[in-house]
Design brief:
The protein has 160 residues and is an all-alpha fold. The chain has 7 helices and 2 strands; from the N terminus they run E-H-H-H-E-H-H-H-H.
């Protein structure tokens, strides 16, 4: 799985004196949904495909319960009625490391349980897009391709 590394000094949050950014559940949900949409659009597949639906559910489940088993992800996925948003849905409470762990683990878990032995290039694009969009909500595919892969969008698109 390709993981963004924002530990370099070129990233504005990496300064030693800068406080760590915290993200809300709502920000994470928006970033993963927008990351899925970007990846699906670039691969010309439906963003409603099972691979993406399970991945989003897994990410959001693991955000609050990092060691949740697949059964808990399934319970969340198959809820009859949408759960009410938690009272702290908009409260910044997750570090970049927590979000990154949930996104990477959720994508891997969904890949494993939707018949793929490991996360593929499309899954990796979802991860990189979601983590980029977390900090830069208006980022586009060009930005993700050049910043996360050091490749042109055309080259990254050819992997999908």
């Amino acid at each position: 799985m390709t993981i963004l590394d924002f530990s370099t000094s070129s990233h504005p949050q990496a300064a030693d004196s800068a406080p760590a950014n915290l993200y809300s559940r709502d920000q994470v949900r928006t970033a993963i949904n927008d990351g899925v949409t970007m990846a699906a659009d670039e691969a010309h597949v439906s963003s409603y495909a099972d691979r993406f639906a399970w991945a989003v559910t897994a990410v959001m489940t693991l955000l609050d319960a990092p060691s949740a088993p697949w059964g808990e992800v399934k319970n969340q996925h198959y809820r009859q009625a949408p759960a009410d948003a938690p009272a702290d849905d908009e409260t910044p409470q997750y570090t970049r490391e927590q979000v990154s762990q949930a996104v990477n683990s959720g994508i891997d878990l969904a890949a494993e349980h939707t018949g793929r032995p490991y996360a593929d290039d499309l899954d990796n694009l979802v991860v990189n897009a979601a983590l980029t969009l977390l900090d830069t909500p208006d980022a586009d595919f060009y930005t993700v391709a050049t910043e996360c892969y050091s490749e042109s969008p055309r080259v990254v698109r050819s992997w999908l």
